[in-house]
Design brief:
The structure is a homodimer. By secondary structure, chain A is mostly helical. The first copy, chain A, has helices spanning about 5-25, 35-40, 45-50, 55-65, 70-80, 85-100, 100-110, 120-150, 160-180, 185-200. In chain A, helix 1 crosses helix 2, helix 1 (about 5-25) crosses helix 7 (about 100-110) and helix 3 (about 45-50) crosses helix 4 (about 55-65). The radius of gyration of chain A is 20 Å and the shape is elongated. Chain A binds a DNA duplex (30 and 30 nucleotides) through helix 1 and helix 3.
Chain lengths: ~200, ~200
Amino acid sequence: MKKTAEEAARTRQDLLDAALGVFSRKGYHATRLVDIAAEAEVTRGAIYHHFGNKAGLYRELLDSASMVGSQIVTEAVQQGGTFIDILQRILVMTFARVENDRRLQDIMALYLFNTDLADELTDIREKVRQESITMIDGIAAQMQMGIDTGQLRPGISAHTYARSFIAYQNGVVDLWLGNPQAFSLTKEGAALADAFLRGFAYQID
Amino acid sequence: MKKTAEEAARTRQDLLDAALGVFSRKGYHATRLVDIAAEAEVTRGAIYHHFGNKAGLYRELLDSASMVGSQIVTEAVQQGGTFIDILQRILVMTFARVENDRRLQDIMALYLFNTDLADELTDIREKVRQESITMIDGIAAQMQMGIDTGQLRPGISAHTYARSFIAYQNGVVDLWLGNPQAFSLTKEGAALADAFLRGFAYQID
DNA sequence: TTATACTAACATGCGTGTATGTATGTTGTC
DNA sequence: GACAACATACATACACGCATGTTAGTATAA
C-alpha cells in the first residue's frame, strides 16, 4: 500500500488540483471531502494524511494558487510599448488566458467568491485581504510612473488608478465566470480593454 | 401564542431582514437557520412556518431583494444631462449608496458572491443568470442610443459597452466589499467613475 | 525493521426537517 | 355581542442523515 516518495507527491498534487476545481465551483462549505478524494482517485484518508483537515487543504491550496497573476504582468511588460499598451496587453492576456485555462478560472473564482468562509478560516480571509492590499500598492506605484511620465491623465491619484484597473479586470472576469456562454473573453477582450483604457466618452480632437 | 395578522407580517419581514444580513455575510451553506431565527428573535419554527424550508427563505429573499439597482438608474436619468453625465451619475450614486446603505451592501454581496449555492438551488442560479442577461440587454439598448447620438466612441458594440459598464460597477463594489476600510466609495466615487468613463489614456487635444 | 502512505471502519456532532403541542387571534352563528 | 369552532403563529422536541475527524489496520518503500 505504501507508495514511493514521488508517487506520494503526485497524489498530493492531484489532491490539490482536485480541491481547486471543486472548491472554486461549489465554494468551501458545499464541497465534500469525499468529492475531492474521488476526483483524485483516493479516499478521504489521503487528505487527512497530507493536509490534516479540510481547512489545512484549503490553506495549502491558496498558498499554491497565489502568485499566478504576476506572471502575466511581467510577461506583458517584457513586450514593451507605451504604458497604455502594456495595460491593454495585461487585460487582453488575462481575459484570453482565463477563457482558455481552466486552472486559472478556478483560481480567479477562488479569489473572487471567497464568501462562506468558515469561522475557522478568518485567518485565510485576512491573509487574502493583506495580499490584495500589497498588490494594489504595487500597481499604484506603477501607475504613479505613468502619471509622472504624462501617459496617464492627471488629476486622478495613483491608488485610484490602481483600484480602478483591478476592479475592472476582476469585474470582467467575474461577469464572464457567472455566464461563460454569454460572450467570449478572447474575442471581446481587446474591445473591453479598449473601452476601459480609452474611455467611453467621445472626445473630438 | 398566536399573534395578530400584522404582527405575523412583521416577524416575517424581520426574518427576511435577518436572512439578508446573515446570508450575505456567511453565504448560503455557512448560515444556520438558528442564527437567522435568533437575529429575528424567534425560533426556527417561525422560519418553517413562513417559508417552508431554508431554500424557500432564500428564494423569497432574492425576490424581495431584486429590482433595487433599477431605482438608482431611473433617478439618475431624471436629473438629465448628457449621456456620459448620466452614466457618471449612475456610478457615483451607486458607489455612495452602497457605502452608506447596509441593506444595499448585503444585496450586492448576495448577487456578487452567488457561489456555493446548493444543488437544490440551481433554479435560483439560473434565474439570477437570466435576470443579468436581460439587464445587460436593456443597458445595451441604452448604449446603442449613446452610439447613435455620437456620445459614445464608435467601433465598440453596444453589448460590449454594457458589459464593460456593469463589470466595472460590480468590480468596484466587489473590491470595496472585500476591504471596506481600504478606501471610501463616497470620496473616491467621482474619480473612479471619471477614470472609467474618460479613460486612462492621456489624449492631447 | 521502521516509517510511510494510505484504506477501511467507526464515532461523533451538527443541522435540517418534521411532528406535535399550545396559546391566541379570527370567523361564523344565534 | 357572546360564544363556540376553527385557523394561525409560532415553540418544543425528536428523528434522521450526512460530513467531518479519528483510530486501527495493512502493505511496502526506505
